[in-house]
Batch of 2 targets.
Target 1
Amino acid sequence: MGDDGRRKKVEDLRSARWLRPDDLRSFGHRSRLKQMGYGSEDYAGKPVIGIINTWSDLTICHTHFRDRAQEVKRGVLQAGGFPVEIPAMPVNEIFMKPSPLLYRNLLAMEVEELLRSQPIDGVVLMGGCDKTTPGLLMGAFSVNLPLVYLPAGPMLRGNWQGQTLGSGSDGWKYWAERCAGNLSTEDWNAIEDGIARSPGHCMTMGTASTMTALAETLGLTLPGASSIPAVDANHSRMASACGRRIVEMVWEDLKPGDLLTAASFDNAITVDMAIGGSTNAIVHLLAMAGRAGIPLQLGRFDEISQRTPMLANIRPSGQFLMEDFYYAGGLRALQAQLTSLLDLSCRTVNGKSLGENIAGARIFKPEVIRTFDNPVARQGGTAVLFGNLAPDGAVIKPTAATPELLQHVGRAVVFRDYNDMAARIDDESLPVDPGSVLVLKHAGPLGGPGMPEWGMLPIPKKLLRQGVRDLVRISDARMSGTSYGTCVLHVSPESFIGGPLALVEDGDLIELDLAGRRLELRVSEEEMARRRASWVRPAPHYQRGYGAIFSERVRQAHEGCDFDFLEAGAPTPEPEIH
Ligand code: FES
């Protein structure tokens, strides 16, 4: 409803500015709709619903989106709206180099400008593959039109010789076995055939599953939407329901600005901890909160982590996959376990509160969704570290790490960048042992660029052959939500701009103290000053184009890696219609 509690009138529709006036400009708009075969009965007096579709032939996780767009349209038509499908930058996790995070902000900028510049009254955002969820939402928050988020849904479980395979996680796991000489080429090829076998996004609790769950917790999807497997018929029906609901939201004038609060972001962080979510979620939630004008600091994640048990027994921190999560009751069942930690009064896109939406939700498979009394871990999936090696913070996923390595002091083996690491990691003469700490530099927002998911540095083959499967690894990179190991990530400020990580040398002692939430470099201040005096900042990666904008304006990891000029601030005016 509008501020006065009344439904919007036809003349109040945003699109009416383009379509209703009796003038030459509106004549042009209407005549061109007629050129496309639409009559006034298609659009006159109806909300125009944008369907932002991130489908492409290379966006592997969205192969079903051409069908889903038709199903959304069906719902929009059923509810008396006028659907228009609009493609947007299909940021995909697999093929985009050097890092898809580089392009999250470009997608967000595109969505913002697509919505603002055209006669759109409300929007269904179609995404799911990692960066698409934050990219779509960040852009839409900045325009603040009614929106419903349509999550792509996870793919089905992988299968190899009757064994379940999980996206990413089992790729790393079996690659290590292959490097150790324990897996034949024939078996490795069979795993390649079976690990991804249906439409949908990665089906571990990677970034995609995490971010869609957080979108749902923020109240931006229909209840239960994020857990439905992509190929389940319920997913098609959910798509049509999105189309019906967004039309009503336009008449009600229910916008993201009416839903997003500090409490709804706390709810999202709570669920992030309870699902053992991807470390990437921290970067994205910080950026999304910035767009929504809601203050959020990195330390808040650790505060909430320490009071939140991890309940979702999903890989890489647990045993099962997202298909199992759906059959176990899905996100609503997990949220229903957290009622004492959630603000249930937060509003959602269906017009109801979070509490109303999860009322009565039950767990059907208690081995998949655990209870407060029997959690997977007593604390949340992510912890935040500070110290002289990370003055602005770093993150770690203790639930996916080796417990014995979480309190550790070891000598650094330093790689100056990814290419150096790739060239030397398997060198038999590399001075590395099971107590070493691998350090990777130049992998942050500017150094990568785009914080590539290099943070799960490979274990040197000579240690793999000895049976070693984990080491403490430290970088300013991110890691895939499907990765695992004792990996300290997002070290901020990054090495490329002269953060302390830039000054680490081979043989330095480094202390990881999870219990104390500390990351310390045991080098004297005098020695650090000496090293700093001789440090030279590298030249930026880009001289022109989008990369140059990125290099000049991106914020650091602890600030969410958005562009400084895109965070909430002075409102952008609606376009003049001339
Ligand atoms: Fe798209 Fe993993 S590749 S979610």
Note: DSSP finds 21 helices and 14 strands in the chain.
Target 2
Amino acid sequence: MEQAIGVFDSGVGGLTVAREIMRQLPYESLIYFGDTARVPYGNKSAETVIRFSKQIVRFLMTKNVKAIVVACNTASALALSSLQEEFDVPIIGVIEPGAVAAVKSTVSKNIGVIATEATVKSGSYNKCLRILDPKITVVSKACPLFVPLVEEGLLEDRITDDVIQRYLHELKDYQVDALILGCTHYPLLRNAIGRYMGEEVKLVNPAYETAKALKALLYERSMLNEDTSVSPHHAYFVSDGVDNFIKFADNVLPADVKMTSLVNIESY
Ligand code: DGL
């Protein structure tokens, strides 16, 4: 199936998911939408995030995508089930793949989850983890300052180390042995977070796990692109700030982003 895969996020963060999909599914074309005009989703209500997500899925459907990845933890936590109910295309989010990997890697059964306020408040990771293994204890912590630190490029900085210490010391006290990086931006802080938490804590990247889950889903449904002779074509769309998007994307993605188009997402 040569149709593209739709990938969307509240902004630039979902590019960490797009990057993993490009690595694991090198023959698939992606259509990425970043809702840069309305970011952040992490402090918005479920109603708003569901409305925004439905508009984005309607837009992606006009591009005839064969599957959709909700590459945003907040939208996955708040809107995934509403999207799956309403639309006829396979749609996957990042929460379940992240939770499955965390359950596989924990020995102590103490799992930490760091995410936006909205994701933590939704309890989605907790629910999913406890369905997979009712013996698991989950400690969650919202880390709202991580998103702006990443967007400012402060991946290795004293300020970032201080903020990490401030947010994560409780998780250390709980002796978690697996920590879910439950927000699209956090995998970019992986080195700094790993240094603070120590080697014995496994950092789980839902972006990587989601790309694996997508590959399995496309394979099972015979939806993988079989024509490996042509390079995939990726297209990028945003609701605002094309130049900033391209700058961030060029730092995250393996290949330069040539063109990004503006979409009036409110009209969908
Ligand atoms: N993409 C969001 C997430 O993964 C983080 C940024 C936001 O708050 O919109 O939860």
Note: The longest strand covers residues 110-115.
